[in-house]
């Protein structure tokens, strides 16, 4: 599942509680050795965070992209950030995990306690302040598998997501419907599973195409 404007960490936490044996959050981890040409650069101190910064440096429209649990170094995530940047945004991907993303052997239960999306949302406030100081208005926040919600949200779910199942997405939509001041868009993509938008199999044409469609919807949403 993927969300444009903050991501339902709520769902993620809720689902960790219910998915005991296997979490799709851990499937197809990024290959950190598969370096590609990156359009952006890493800065050491964006309001106290290391961050990957890409796109139109002088644009007044900024997008903050939250990584999934594997962190801001994932090549496919940076590729997505570059693509968003190509459409005219200044894009920042902060290292919300302070150099401690999930790796082989991480105990997810313990990790999520140390890296709760709720805490991170508070820690992220100086990032927004710093961007505003640079006269950038933050248009949106996009995230994958990890985050929270207060603003208009687009939720892109996956048919075979056992972490944030379609049923959970529907429940979420019900909840959003009841708070009718929050505008939202939700879609379930057929034939794919959790992580489809940022951790897809990049040699599988169907998965690549689906992830591209998800990116187009995300860009449309930011455009709105
Ligand atoms: C992960 O941490 C939790 C809480 O500390 C513990 O109960 C659980 O046994 C650990 N799981 C593994 C696989 O070590
Ligand atoms: C990725 O997709 C290719 C082509 O469909 C397939 O051969 C390969 O096994 C897939 N890799 C994984 C990790 O699923």
Automatic annotation (TrEMBL):
Signal sequence coordinates: 1-21
Keywords of this entry: Signal
A molecular-function term among this protein's GO annotations: hydrolase activity
Keyword match Nucleotide-binding: no
Gene3D superfamilies the UniProt entry points to: alpha/beta hydrolase (3.40.50.1820)
Domain (Dienelactone hydrolase) ranges: 49-147, 148-223
InterPro entries linked to this entry: AB_hydrolase_fold (IPR029058), Dienelactn_hydro (IPR002925)
Protein name as catalogued: Dienelactone hydrolase domain-containing protein
UniProt source species: Brachypodium distachyon
């Amino acid at each position: 599942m993927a969300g444009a404007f903050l991501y339902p960490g709520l769902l993620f936490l809720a689902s960790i509680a219910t998915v005991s044996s296997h979490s799709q959050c851990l499937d197809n981890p990024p290959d950190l050795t598969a370096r590609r040409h990156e359009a952006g650069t890493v800065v050491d101190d964006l309001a106290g965070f290391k961050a990957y910064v890409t796109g139109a440096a002088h644009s007044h429209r900024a997008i903050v992209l939250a990584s999934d649990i594997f962190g801001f170094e994932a090549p496919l995530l940076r590729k997505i950030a570059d693509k968003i940047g190509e459409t005219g945004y200044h894009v920042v991907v902060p290292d919300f995990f302070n150099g401690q993303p999930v790796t082989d052997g991480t105990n997810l239960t313990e990790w999520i306690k140390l890296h709760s999306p709720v805490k991170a949302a508070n820690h992220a406030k100086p990032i927004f302040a710093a961007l505003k100081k640079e006269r950038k208005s933050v248009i949106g926040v996009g995230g994958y598998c990890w985050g929270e919600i207060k603003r208009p949200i687009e939720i892109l779910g996956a048919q075979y997501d056992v972490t944030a199942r379609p049923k959970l997405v529907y429940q979420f939509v019900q909840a959003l419907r009841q708070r009718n001041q929050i505008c939202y868009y939700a879609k379930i993509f057929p034939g794919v599973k959790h992580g489809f938008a940022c951790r897809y199999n990049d040699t599988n044409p169907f998965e690549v195409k689906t992830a591209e469609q998800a990116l187009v919807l995300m860009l449309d949403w930011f455009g709105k």
